[in-house]
Design goal:
125 residues; mainly alpha
Length: 125
């Protein structure tokens, strides 16, 4: 074996853990809104399968219910913790990685309102 004279440090460097601009002050990351988006999408897929294949209704309602409850919790936590710091949402929108995920917040609401409009027609209009 040859010795090149370079030593590799096997211990991690001591760097302080700084919060990224996407999650300041303990707010959930915007990418977590992908979970209720996926659940609402699965509910929409099950709705399409129900209308064409005659599958049961209960999985669709469970998926939409889980998506709506998770979306409401994440949105409430994001808004209430975001009000503590001025310009936090603007900083999230301008963040290179987290910015596009901000569109998930209204998108999930649109998917859920399209499902709930069959039960509450005036609100769906």
């Amino acid at each position: 074996m040859t010795d090149t004279g370079t030593d590799v440090a096997l211990t991690p460097t001591s760097q302080g853990r700084a919060l990224s601009p996407a999650t300041p002050s303990g707010r959930p990351a915007l990418s977590r809104f992908g979970i209720p988006l996926a659940l609402a999408g699965l509910g929409g897929g099950w709705s399409a399968a129900r209308s064409s294949l005659g599958s049961p209704v209960w999985p669709e309602e469970i998926l939409y219910g889980a998506a709506s409850s998770l979306w409401l919790v994440l949105t409430a936590v994001y808004v209430f913790r975001g009000l503590r710091r001025r310009g936090a949402f603007r900083a999230d929108l301008r963040h290179q990685l987290a910015g596009p995920f901000a569109s998930f917040i209204p998108l999930v609401g649109i998917l859920l309102s399209s499902h709930c409009s069959q039960y509450l027609p005036p609100w769906g209009a």
